[in-house]
């Protein structure tokens, strides 16, 4: 009789546990209090011990501010608060920006970022650090630091010229502005793409790297000199890198990549300029080596950074500014058909005059989804990096 009672109690506890697991969960917090410095372009990663590590650039400005450096913070598993911030990278007298965190197949931590020379984005130098001792309090103990070198070959110029001649690009009216790529400048860009020196610098990261089933690493990059994207590719766990063909479109940059079940890799990108204010999309059928000419989706975006991930249950999640102008609305959209259609599920932020942008998003091993982004809740200059976490039940519940 007693064993029956215990069994009944166990069943009730199991039912309660399942119900609890399926209940919507959402949490939000600032990583540090609102302050006056410019803090932007965060990246979040889960560590092997289930801690979270986040970094961002921090200083008085961006490419023309030599005091800008990379700061970081960690959220220990079970802790309610992020740690005090600590330095992650600082090149004296030069700005360090756009950090991206990544843990590879061997549990080695990487941080990719740029150091800007001559106050010009197209003179940025792509850099990286690695660490195998990064689970203690404070900053990782860096094992190695270098520039990340790769050579976009002669095919780079050929693909750019072919892309600009495609119907997708030529259909854009000549009087529409798309960054520096106005119609009169395309011939100059094609010529510039033939310059070995120019095409080896100015490549910048923004979104997470991806490990393919083969072990290949893809690091999405973009250029404000060419307004194209490409992948830095490594087939030897980061020892050497080579360049994919460029992703060509109308003034695109900052690709984020996601992989379909059939192996197709999809890149989504922001538009740079004033053309359609829509997210752009390109596909690769060969593990990131070549890409289709990017075309517009019907997803509105005010030319700001976004990120897309595939959840383990097959859903895709996009975090992005979902309006045509301004950055005061930050949303999550969900796709049940690998990007063929998107259903807007949640707004994380909607506040006139605010800026909520440049998100980073991951799903951790426990199934929880975490995002960080620049949080500026008013027209004043005070900013922080905000961290939100939620489960699939909350995501599927809708606004």
Kindly list the characteristics that best describe this protein.
399 residues; single chain; Neuraminidase; five-stranded antiparallel beta sheet
Per-chain topology:
Layout: H1 2-22, E1 26-30, E2 38-46, E3 52-59, E4 69-75, E5 86-89, E6 96-103, E7 109-116, E8 124-131, E9 144-147, H2 154-164, H3 167-170, H4 186-192, E10 203-205, E11 210-211, E12 217-223, E13 229-234, E14 242-243, E15 252-259, E16 265-271, E17 278-284, E18 295-300, E19 307-310, E20 316-321, E21 329-335, E22 343-350, E23 355-363, E24 369-376, E25 384-390, H5 392-397
Antiparallel strand pairs: 1-25, 2-3, 3-4, 4-5, 6-7, 7-8, 8-9, 10-12, 11-12, 12-13, 13-14, 15-16, 16-17, 17-18, 19-20, 20-21, 21-22, 23-24, 24-25
Total E-strand runs: 25
Q: Mind summarizing the main beta sheet?
A: 5 strands, antiparallel
Cα end-to-end separation? 48 Å
Report the uncertain regions.
1-20, 179-184
CATH fold annotation: Neuraminidase
Mean pLDDT value: 91
CATH architecture: 6 Propeller
Strand fraction: 35-45%
Count of separate structural domains: 1
Radius of gyration: 22 Å
Summarize the structure.
The chain has 399 residues and is mostly beta strands.
Explained architecture:
This protein has 399 residues and is mainly beta. The protein has a single domain, classed as Neuraminidase, CATH 2.120.10. Helix content is 12%, strand content 40%. The chain contains five helices and 25 strands. Strands 10, 11, 12, 13 and 14 form a five-stranded antiparallel β-sheet that branches. A hairpin with a 5-residue loop joins strand 2 and strand 3. Helix 2 runs antiparallel to helix 4. The longest helix is centred in the first third of the chain and has 21 residues. The N terminus is likely disordered.
């Amino acid at each position: 009789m007693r064993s029956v009672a215990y069994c009944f109690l166990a069943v009730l506890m199991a039912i309660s546990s399942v119900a609890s697991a399926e209940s919507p969960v959402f949490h939000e917090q600032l990583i540090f209090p609102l302050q006056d410095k410019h803090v932007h372009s965060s990246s979040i990663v889960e560590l092997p011990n289930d801690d979270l590590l986040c970094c961002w650039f921090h200083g008085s400005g961006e490419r023309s501010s030599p005091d800008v450096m990379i700061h970081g913070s960690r959220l220990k598993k079970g802790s309610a608060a992020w740690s005090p911030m600590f330095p992650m990278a600082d090149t004296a007298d030069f700005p360090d920006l756009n950090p991206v965190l990544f843990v590879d197949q061997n549990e080695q931590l990487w941080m990719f970022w740029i150091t800007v020379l001559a106050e010009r984005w197209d003179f940025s130098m792509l850099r990286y650090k690695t660490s195998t001792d990064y689970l203690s309090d404070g900053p990782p103990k860096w094992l190695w630091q270098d520039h990340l070198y790769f050579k976009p070959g002669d095919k780079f110029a050929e693909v750019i010229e072919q892309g600009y001649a495609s119907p997708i690009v030529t259909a854009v009216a000549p009087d529409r502005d798309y960054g520096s790529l106005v119609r009169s400048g395309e011939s100059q860009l094609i010529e510039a793409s033939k310059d070995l020196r120019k095409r080896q610098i100015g490549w910048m990261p923004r979104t997470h790297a991806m490990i393919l089933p083969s072990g290949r690493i893809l690091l999405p990059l973009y250029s404000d000199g060419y307004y194209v994207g490409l992948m830095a590719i490594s087939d030897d766990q980061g020892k050497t890198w080579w360049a994919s063909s460029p992703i060509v479109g109308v003034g695109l940059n900052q690709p984020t990549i996601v992989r379909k079940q059939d192996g197709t890799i999809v890149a989504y990108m922001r538009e740079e300029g004033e053309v359609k204010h829509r997210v752009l999309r390109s596909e690769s059928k060969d593990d990131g080596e070549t890409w289709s000419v990017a075309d517009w989706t019907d997803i509105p975006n005010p030319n700001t950074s976004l990120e897309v991930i595939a959840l383990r249950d097959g859903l895709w999640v996009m975090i992005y500014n979902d309006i045509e102008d301004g950055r005061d609305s930050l949303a999550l959209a969900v796709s049940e058909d690998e990007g063929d259609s998107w259903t807007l599920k949640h707004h994380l932020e909607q506040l006139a005059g605010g800026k909520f942008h440049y998100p980073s998003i991951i799903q951790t091993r426990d199934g929880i989804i975490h995002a960080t982004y620049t949080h500026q809740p008013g027209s004043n200059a005070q900013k922080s990096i905000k961290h939100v976490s939620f489960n699939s039940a909350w995501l599927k519940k809708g606004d």
